[in-house]
TrEMBL record:
This is IGK protein. Keywords: Immunoglobulin domain, Membrane, Receptor, Transmembrane, Transmembrane helix. The lineage of its organism: Eukaryota, Metazoa, Chordata, Craniata, Vertebrata. Signal peptide: none annotated. Pfam families: C1-set (PF07654), V-set (PF07686). The gene is Igk. The chain crosses the membrane at residues 214-236. GO terms for cellular component: membrane. PANTHER family: T CELL RECEPTOR GAMMA CONSTANT 1-RELATED, T-CELL RECEPTOR GAMMA CHAIN. It is found in: Membrane.
Length: 237
């Protein structure tokens, strides 16, 4: 049995429907004819389709099922997926106008800041990888923020690695509905900011402010780490 939940921002999740034996049972308050569920057993997938999408459909949707392999005192646990956020707008989407990696070295660590600016809508996936797999340790993903225009958003993500990895290449990958880009930490970072006639990159005031804020954040974070290590040294000593 596959369950689907709908959670609007700032509200508790509510079950939308459940799918069992090829039959969809929709909860009261929802129009049954607008939802279609298809189960693809070979690929172990369950697909929810919403017809005639309206602004009220904007929410995060979760699939879930009762897992008999994870029990607590004889009870099944309901396992939830990571969720899919649906954004509904009449405005067309636009890809980021600028994306780059900033580097900050401090003693035995290097922090890379992946800055992705001015895109719409705000839904974007940012990950770090090396040449082989996704990197999840020592990664911090910031929240999206609005630029000077209400319909433009930016985001940043940090990766901290040991200084001995300075020659190792990492990639900041982002997926927006308009494009997918992979930025390497070695070589020239990708920049797509608008240019003037003299071909110099133009950076708006809010971009510079956010750069400064993130660099300050990095410095404070590194100082906190050093303080923590110093305290541990004296404790164990």
């Amino acid at each position: 049995v596959i369950h689907w939940y709908k959670q609007k921002e700032g509200e508790t999740p509510e079950r939308l429907l459940f799918f069992s034996g090829g039959k969809v049972t929709t909860e009261s308050g929802f129009q049954a004819n607008r939802y279609m569920v298809e189960r693809i057993s070979v690929q172990k997938q369950c697909v929810l389709t919403i017809k005639d999408v309206i602004p009220d459909d904007a929410a995060t949707y979760y699939c879930a099922y009762w897992d008999p392999h994870f029990t607590v005192i004889g009870y099944y646990n309901k396992m939830f997926g990571s969720g899919t956020k649906l954004f509904v707008s009449e405005k067309g989407s636009s890809p980021p106008t600028n994306s780059e990696i900033l580097q900050k070295k401090h003693e035995n660590q290097i922090t890379y800041v992946c800055l992705i600016e001015k895109f719409y809508p705000e839904i974007i996936r940012v990950t770090w990888t090396d040449d082989e797999k996704e990197v999840t340790d020592n990664v911090v993903k910031g929240d999206t923020w609005q630029s000077t225009k209400e319909d433009e958003y930016s985001i940043a993500s940090w990766l901290t690695v040991p200084a001995e990895n300075k020659d190792k290449k990492y990639y900041c990958k982002y997926e927006h509905e308009e494009e997918k880009v992979s930025l390497p930490t070695q070589g020239n970072a990708v920049k797509t900011a608008p240019q003037e006639d003299d071909c110099r990159t133009v950076f708006s005031r809010d971009q510079l402010m956010h750069r400064t804020a993130y660099l300050v954040y990095i410095i404070l974070l590194l100082k906190s780490s050093m303080y923590y290590l110093t305290v541990l040294f004296f404790i164990y000593r």
